[in-house]
Amino acid sequence: MLDIEGTTSATGFVVGELYPYARKRFGRLLTERAAEPEVRRAVGQIREMLDEPAADAARMERALGAWLDEDRKATPLKTLQGIVWAEGFASGELVSHFYPDVLPRLREWHAAGVRLHVYSSGSVAAQRAWFGHSPEGDLRPLAGEFYDTENAGPKLVAASYEAITADLGAAPGRVLFLSDRPGELDAARAAGWRTAGVRRPGEPYYESGVGHHPEVASFAELEIRTGGGARTPAGAGTAAPPDVPAVGADEVRRAGARLAAEAARFAGFGWMRGTSGNLSVVLARDPLRLAVTASGRDKGELTEDDVVLVDGRGAAVEGAAGTSAGAGKPSAEAGLHARVVRLTGAGAVVHVHTVAAVAMGRRRPGGIVFRDLEMLKGLGLPAEGTAVRLPVVANSQDMDVLGDRLEEAREPRMPAVVVAGHGLYVWGANLLQARHHAEVVQWLLELEVASGRG
């Protein structure tokens, strides 16, 4: 997984060549092309970040210029830069930059069968243009997937790297991340990735070092080994996960005990009244198996046996001994739990029916924006300079339809979604993190209710 600025390419080229090129063209983009979907979405995001719903093109152009000066990693800024740069590269006005040690190594690794991908703060459009218009021609065939702060999330948050891992279908320990920025390397390592810091003289993070990560001064110094120990130029390639044994009844019951304890906690908060709501935890990935609380049971009185083992579609399956692993039947919403896991790479999903979620879903059917709150740290986000949207989707009794709506509306930085007139879905890497996320999101919703806004 490759970073671009400071790693494959000089930051000075981006700041000295590309930033001024985009700055000159923002005004025309905002005034003449505001109806285009990507521009329209970016405009909405800029206005949200400014908290100025009526901000005109001139105001937004000034804001973009200020964010450029701050080198702020704002998603709408990156989106609009990507549009301008892609057109500049396509016209031949721009040609990207790569350090001389990079391209020979990338070609060598690709020839050896290594899967190469890119994760940069620049938009996916800008990344594709960058690789498509290099001094040596179109390099896009060398790269598989491109990730940015919109489709993966902030680069200083471990959850973003976990989301990429899930999307790639890779074992975390088989992904190597190359970056010059120590905070990014720390976040990648926290997600289970291997890391190497690329420390080049003259780059902004050179003096910061790379912390406790392995360090190289160029790609020529990289010698990566496969799991068997033999040197290959590209050992960052992924391997198929080992076979997953069948899930037995005892394992399901242990999961049931954990789910029962969490359900009792949420029922005590008043979030799972009567038989409402459901919880799940992943027990196996290949094939996908989840333990889900049984339908029709009082969530404040669950036992270890009030749980069902389901597959990747939410249908009940049998345990290793051939008998049903768990008691009762799964809710129809088990299919949505499985969909969330497949989509996000989560290890647990919480679905609760809170008054605040339903109330705010009615007030803000287009989504609920939270900004500049200390509690956002509980979601792995900065407390200042951050605006994040909690999506609201229309309800449906068809879990495939509801899953499609969730997938379309999902905000990668927000591990939750409100289903209008229904409740709140929240997820995390494990059951404890899912609980913490649920409590944080609920607090944010209660604050909005108390404020009376909307």
* Spatial separation of the terminal alpha carbons: 42 Å
Mean pLDDT reading: 86
Please report the total strand number as a whole number: 16
Count every helix, treating DSSP H or I runs of 4 or more residues as helices. Answer: 14
Low-confidence stretches: 226-245, 320-324
Range of helix content = 25-40%
The outline comes out as: globular
Order of helices and strands: HHHHHHEHEHEHEEEEHEEEHEHEEEHEEH
Strand adjacency order, main sheet: 10-9-8-11-16-15-14
Largest sheet, in brief, is: 7 strands, mixed
Structural class: alpha/beta
Q: What does the radius of gyration come to?
A: 23 Å
In what range is the share of β-strand residues? 5-15%
How would you sum up this structure, described in words?
- The chain has 454 residues and is an alpha/beta fold.
- The chain is 39% helix and 14% strand.
- It is built from 14 helices and 16 strands.
- The chain has helices at residues 11-23, 26-32, 37-50, 57-70, 75-91, 102-111, 124-132, 158-168, 182-190, 249-269, 334-344, 355-363, 399-409, 431-451, and strands at 118-119, 146-147, 176-179, 194-198, 215-216, 224-225, 231-232, 278-285, 288-293, 307-310, 348-352, 368-371, 387-390, 392-393, 416-419, 423-428.
- It has a seven-stranded mixed sheet with strand order 10-9-8-11-16-15-14, sandwiched between helices. The chain has a three-stranded parallel sheet with strand order 3-4-5, with helices on one face. A two-stranded parallel ribbon has the order 1-2.
- Helix 7 (124-132) links the parallel strand 1 (118-119) and strand 2 (146-147).
- Helix 2 (26-32) runs antiparallel to helix 4, helix 11 (334-344) packs parallel to helix 13 and helix 12 packs across helix 14.
- The longest helix is centred in the middle third of the chain and has 21 residues, at 249-269.
- The protein is globular and about 65 Å long.
- The model is unreliable at 226-245 and 320-324 (pLDDT under 50).
